[in-house]
Amino acid sequence: MSLGKEIGRATRQFAGYSGVAWRGPSLTLLIAWRNLVHDRIRFGVTLVGIAFSTILVGIQLGMLLNFLQTTSTVVDRAGANIWVAAHGVPSVDLATPIDGRRRFQSVAVEGVAAAEPYLLHFGFWKRADGIRQIVILIGVEPGAEMGLPLTLPAGQSFREALSSPDGIIIDRLYAEKLGVTGLNQLVEINDRRARVVGFTDGIRTFTQSPYVFTSLRNARWLLGRSDDVITYVLIRVVAGQDPAAVIERLSARMPDVDVMTSREFASSSQKYWLLTTGAGISIICSSLLALFVGVVIVAQTLYASTMDRLPEYAVIRAMGGPRWYLYKIVIEQAVIGGVIGSAVGIAAVLVLVYLGRNMSSPPLVPAWLALGIGAVTVVMCVGASLVSISKITSIDPVKVFR
Amino acid sequence: MKRAVISASGVSHSFDTGPTPVTVLRDIDVEVYAGELLMLVGPSGSGKTTLLHILGRLLSPSSGVVTLYGKNTQALGEEELAALRLKYFGFIFQAYNLFPVLTATENVMVMLDLLGVSRQIARNRARELLKSVGLGHRLDAFPSQLSSGQRQRVAIARALAGDPKILMADEPTAALDAESGLRAIELLQILAHQQERAVVIVTHDPRILHFGDRVIHLEDGQIAERLAAPRDLSPQHAMGAL
Question: In this predicted complex, what is the ipTM?
Answer without folding.
Answer: 0.86
